[in-house]
Design a protein that fits this description.
3 copies of one chain form a homotrimer. Chain A is α+β, with helices and mostly antiparallel strands and 361 residues long. Chain A is built from 8 helices and 12 strands. Chain A starts with 35 loop residues before the first strand and ends with a strand. Chains A, B, C: This is Mesaconyl-CoA hydratase.
Chain lengths: 361, 361, 361
């Protein structure tokens, strides 16, 4: 057990020079490649988190909704949504990685390995795998590989994230640059299929749509139609649920424009839930290749979504296929375009996520 | 297990003529009398749904609040609220019955048969029992009898609902008219009393009011006094909790006036919870005779409620009486009047519900 | 079991003189010293309440978040937050004590004795321990000692509260004045340490901060930095969750200014959760010495918090120290001042709470 002597939290000083007890977060200089951060505040989840996930998002994927349906697919019971697992794991990294972050730059090599069941306790650890100071000397990019573990010390999920972080002192020397080599796309062989998963007896009627893995074509685009106008109370409750307490989501006095930036993960979950309409059988998220929070989202926005099939592959598990999907959240419906001629995301694009999901063959 | 070949979902075509994967819902022509629709997305409930029901509504009926109180009334533990069971069952019908509905016309023959316990999984099935095209040829009325079943294939509850549905093609021929004969009021003998229910040792002090079945007179009206001003985030979370994703409740761009129509069931539950004040001992809802969502409800409305005792009867169960109640939700307090001289609901009336509840004798 | 004949609820008459069934609450004349009120609507809690508490407040104290962490501290599993227990117990007293209250004057002698676990059922009882009519004859102060009990009839927590209550009839004679002697501060010996609690193996890294009991100095002030802008839907859901249905929190037509007063307990929990930043290891709240809801709080306020260490002491339990803390919630950050030259709370002070918490030595 760690005691207070072994903690690597940087000493913080108040304005007057005395030691304060509050967390000022890590600045760019506080990271070293190879460092492992054991994030705080482990979290036990229950049917309460599952109910709340269903209240916050129009979540209808049957595997997460019904114990019986999950059992008919070879699982012991309905797991907590894969994205809920992500949010819990991510939320624990925020006090250590995000407090002085300027921007969330990307994700890679996200793999879901062990489902999360009611009663499980999750904790997070992150290894610093890259550092690169920016030429302006005021910020730098930090790459971390975060692992979420359950009470059996099993890997629940992992992902790489990189963020632009402020420096405490612009004159501090730059660390040696280390830029990790990351797979832009996970191969199907990199994916982990939950033990026992079997879609050979999959009930398409109870699932809500008849579309099989074989019915989707690479390049196909699906407009998920429905929109949800998001509210302040919802996104704050959703973000707090994962113990993500980043000020910008909660404090209307933080930004000069008085707006509370919606946690990007809230947009991910909203879009994923909306994607049920056309992708009801993309049940389990098992890989995350990339993600860009293209434009900020605020309360009052009507979020819509569309998807594109990027790739398909079979897996070893009975009746289980894998689809690689682009999930796009927008603040306006219409054409399914992502970027302008300048190569930048169009202003109505909120999210561009590249992930693998499992679907009955 | 159903496979995709046997689904009866109508083929949907995109504007360009290609098959789309999203659900356009059923139009009037897609229904046939006798058809059974096995609705999708079964749902397992837990203490999470019970906690959320208590957060969303000022629900204080003791039988649903306390395992001990429920046990003192002969039940194994506190069931999930009867209206929560209704919302779950109803929510599953929405993608199949409501997507192209113009108006919700009425309810009848609603019976609650088996309580819902944390851990239960519910699914819904509907049989089409009536069809009548409107003279304008653009819409028609569809009657469905919906049954909610649990994981033991026991009937949890059932009800008849009829909706006005758009036609896909105004020129399509009208089906043979079938209008079901429905009981305007269930007789006490039609009601199902949960097994083991026994009010002989009912604790009136812990229940919150001293009024017994014998203290209520037919014709008596009760003003429940309290008002709750409803908010967008709440009604959306409440509606989503039941996996009811009808656009009009969530998308502020859907209606020309930019408002999100509040799910009628949210008003039902709010009014029922408010009715605790004066009807604290009307514990279990066992029958639904009729219901009209008289006027739409939107965020910012202060909902109030009053009730009228329509009938009373004893039951076979020890100490258990039945009361037939009219529950009225309003957007303004004051006189307990329902309709104007023209026979239409007064503008401040939101809901007129006719139901049977069980009360200690 | 109580039957309706033995209830002591005062007879209520409608304006027309007939008996109404709704609860008009107790007026000052309805209280007698020594009277015991057995409050209604017991409540079973589950993981659902724990999840909701984490969604409503940025709660990160590890003992309540993680079963494993709680077990590492000698408890069977993670209890429900001590303040959640308080809100449940308090909420049940509202229909009997608060309906005609003009002001909440103070708290004293609050002791938490038995943690609350998912599955527990709580009920509340209050003994009237003091009465004092005000000289204007229109109101009087009522002191109650409220006890929360679980399903084993174990004392979960207790506290004394006094409120100013309206008189029904200004001409009614004043009762004999009884003003209870209350301890302004509980001694450490008055506190109850949960059975089995053991902080000798406390994991500071997983807890989130390295600060031990020995690192805090009496007189030290800690600014918790973060602010949360509160919303209508959240505070209403939070208050309803505890079955506290006092109109002023829910009905925007109740106050002339159209505002819904936020339940003071919502501010307590928000401030306590914010205090994690600097007091992450003040894990268990075991005593409440005093509390003032200094100024009202409304939606749109950005709540911040600071704390002051008032006292410290060791306890009998292994590795467990006690800290006495002042917790202040404000509607604006800045100087950590409480009162102006006139001895009144400054306008930006929302809450001043004096409590004991347990911390690893």
């Amino acid at each position: 057990m760690a005691n207070s002597d072994t903690l690597d939290r940087p000493a913080t000083k108040s304005k007057g020079g005395a030691m304060t007890k509050t967390n000022e977060g890590r600045f760019f200089e506080d990271y070293t490649v190879g460092q492992v951060i054991r994030h705080a505040v482990p979290r036990t989840v229950s049917g309460g988190e599952r109910a709340l996930y269903h209240a916050l998002y129009p979540a209808r994927h049957a595997l997460y909704s019904s114990d019986l349906f999950a059992q008919s697919c070879g699982l012991p019971s309905a797991p907590i949504d894969d994205l809920a697992a992500f949010h819990v794991v991510f939320g624990k990294t925020v006090p250590d990685v995000s407090l002085n972050a300027v921007a969330n730059l990307g994700y890679a090599e996200g793999r879901w390995v062990t489902p999360v069941w009611p009663g499980d306790t999750l904790r997070s650890e992150s290894e610093v795998i890259g550092l690169k100071q920016n030429s302006n000397g005021k910020t730098g990019v930090v790459w971390v590989r975060t692992r979420g573990l359950n009470q059996h010390d099993e890997l629940v999920m992992e992902y790489v994230r990189w963020v632009m972080v402020r420096k405490r002192d612009a004159d501090a020397a730059a660390p040696e640059t280390v830029v990790p080599e990351l797979k832009p796309v996970l191969a199907v062989g990199d994916l982990s299929i939950p033990a026992g998963l079997d879609f050979t007896g999959y009930d398409f009627e109870l699932a809500g749509e008849p579309h099989r893995w074989g019915d989707y074509e690479i390049g196909e685009k699906i407009d998920h139609v429905d929109g949800v106008t998001v509210e302040e109370a919802e996104h704050m409750m959703a973000t707090r649920l994962w113990q993500n307490t980043a000020k910008v989501h909660f404090d209307a006095t933080f930004r000069p424009d008085g707006q509370r930036l919606i946690y990007g993960g809230h947009v991910i979950s909203m879009a994923r839930a909306l994607s049920f309409n056309g992708l009801a059988n993309a049940q389990m998220i098992v890989g995350l290749n990339a993600g860009a929070h293209a434009n900020p989202c605020f309360s009052g926005t009507t979020v819509r979504a569309w998807s594109e099939v990027l790739d398909k592959a079979k897996t070893e598990a009975p009746g289980v296929g894998a689809v690689r999907l682009r999930l796009v959240a927008t603040s306006a419906g219409g054409s399914m375009e992502l970027k302008g001629d300048d190569g930048k995301y169009l202003p109505h694009v909120l999210l561009d996520l590249d992930y693998w999901a499992l679907m009955p063959v």
